[in-house]
Amino acid sequence: MAIEIIATGKAVPSKRVTNDDLAAKIDTNDEWIRSHTGIGARHIADEDTACSDLALEASKQALAMAGVTALSLDFIILASASPDYYGCPSSACVVQEKIGAKNAAAMDISAGCTGFVYGLETAAGLLSISKSRKRALVIGSEVISKIIDWNDRSICVLFGDGAGAVLVEKTGSPSEGPGKRGLLRTILGADGAGEKFLLTRRGGTRNPWKAGETVTIPPHLEMDGRAVYNFAVKSVTETINNLLAEESASTGATVTVDDLAWIVPHQANARIVQAAGKRLGIPEEKFFLNIEEYANTSAASIPIALDELNRGGKLHRGDLILTLGFGAGLTYGGNLIVW
Ligand code: ACO
Question: What pLDDT is recorded for position 67?
């Protein structure tokens, strides 16, 4: 039995905002943004679009690619840091209704930008232990533009909106030995001591609205960029090393970076990827990067990248790929997958 990704989809708002567009409104410039992050543009949702709307679009694409209906879904797992509603209901339930997945259980995952990596492992676990359930939709979707302080140049230039979805199926292929396929292994981790480095302070029960209080700016994301940067470089480096070491130990054959067709990192900052690559001696071309066009789409960035690779003909059956996530929590993780 293998847990395989059988289809992908993505949705990105049509409104494209360049660095120059931002520079016309706040004290920033294209040169700073590009040199510090690798970002050239981002796509921003319109007023009426919420997390579940982009998720729905990406999910429809994945179902169409596989040629299956939503009724065949057993689980919908949606990772987001910018859900339709905080607390409840989950955005996964909103998608379940809109797409007509009447037979699917649905839930959200809150693991910041690592959400998709967590979601894929969660889907694999749920499918593995169930005799009757065989198909899950794993979505990363963000309308993070609506929880950003657009006057804070240190953060607003970094993010964009979008969604990616993958269809995950329990198949009869082997998951080990010759011809193995699908999700081979996952590393998931967290360091809750980093709670304060990336958070939405308001809107939850820690800092509820108090009667008579005037809130001058709505709840928004706050970040200690330097602290997150240091955590990201360390966790990315360790996750690559540990995934390859674990796979080598379990198969008895040395698996190295050379065996990977692609490393698909969370697209937060091209410099994080370059720093990790330099530490491990990995050529830059091994990393798939589309941050220049989309900026940081948080939990959506890995499934958007997978869809672009897939539809672009850059993934072939049998390719070994490695995903890497890090983000709020702080959380981190990675998946090793045979495509
Ligand atoms: N335009 C122009 N200047 C700017 C901008 C901007 N948009 N933003 C900051 N600056 C200035 C600062 O004011 C500062 O000026 P000063 O030296 O006069 O005080 C200078 O640039 C340097 O600022 P730093 O914050 O030190 O810049 P740094 O090189 O650390 O880069 C960055 C900042 C890009 C945010 C980096 O720290 C980073 O990428 N961190 C990781 C972010 C990340 O990965 N987030 C993941 C989120 S995942 C999730 O779960 C949502």
Answer: 98
Omega of the bond leading into 174 within 30 degrees of 0 (cis): no
By the 10 Å C-beta count (0-12 exposed, 13-18 middle, 19+ buried), 243 is classed as: buried
Band the pLDDT of 178: cuts 50, 70, 90: confident
Full DSSP string of 34-102: HHHH---EEE---TT--HHHHHHHHHHHHHHHHT--GGG-SEEEEE-SS-SSSSSS-HHHHHHHHHT-T
**Counting atoms of ligand 1 from 1, which one is nearest the CA of 266?**
48
Residues 92-143 have pLDDT tens digits of: 999 999 999 999 999 999 999 999 999 999 999 999 999 899 999 999 999 9
Distance from Cα 197 to the centre of ligand 1, integer Å: 13
Catalytic residue among 19, 113, 156, 310: 113
Reading the block at residue 290, the tokens are 């589309």
Residue 336, preceding peptide bond in cis (omega within 30° of 0): no
* Alpha-carbon gap, residue 223 to 337, rounded angstroms: 31
Cβ–ligand 1 distance for 109 under 6 Å, the answer: no
Q: Which two tokens stand for residue 87?
A: 């607390």
Nearest residue (CA) to ligand 1, atom 33: 225
| Percent of residues, the chain, with pLDDT higher than 70 | 100
Q: What is the pLDDT of residue 41?
A: 98
**Claim: this prediction has a pTM higher than 0.90:** yes
